[in-house]
Structures are given as C-alpha cells and as structure tokens.
Predict the structure.
Amino acid sequence: MRVVLFGYQTWGYRTLEALLGSEHEVVLAVTHPKSDHAYESIWSDSVADLAAAHGVPVVVLGPGSVAEQAHRADESVGVDELVTAARAYALAILRLGGADTPVRTDV
C-alpha cells in the first residue's frame, strides 16, 4: 500500500519509523516546521529528518502562520486558510497515494 504520512514530533516519528519497517511504501511525509516552543524540547524527534534520511519527500504544510499564530495562548487560524490546507492535504493524498480517478482542483 502507498502511504502519505501526516505527522509531527515524536509520535509522527515513531509512526513513520514503523511504516518504513513495514511492507508499505511511504510516498510523502507532511509535517509542520520546527519550533522553539517549550514542548518541542520534550517531543523533539523530527519527522522531516527521518523521512529525508530514507529518501521520502517531505512537505512542511499547515494552515496559518507559524511565526505569527502558532503555539500561542491566542492561537487561531482563519476558516479560509483551514479550507486551503484541507484541500492541499486531500490533493497530496489523492495524487501521491495512487488515486485511480482524476482529481478535481476546482472545488
């Protein structure tokens, strides 16, 4: 099975590690950018580094601005940004995961 992994930090790393050791083909890893937030020092394993070490393409993607919005007390993201991110996730899964049907991008 072709797999597109969406994961970050230690839990995403461990999941990717398990997938890489399985019969599945990991065709893409989607993760978030590294952060200096305090919890990152606890759960700091890098999905991007592990994927790159195994030749798996990596996309750093997420709604909103990491520099201006993420990991703050008032963290928020606009609905339009969330919809755009969801479309990007769906297209990545369909195109790289081996969808047999044509992909519409006009919705």
Summary: The two ends are 27 Å apart (CA to CA). The longest strand covers residues 25-31. The CA atoms of residues 20 and 26 lie 7 Å apart. The mean pLDDT is 81.
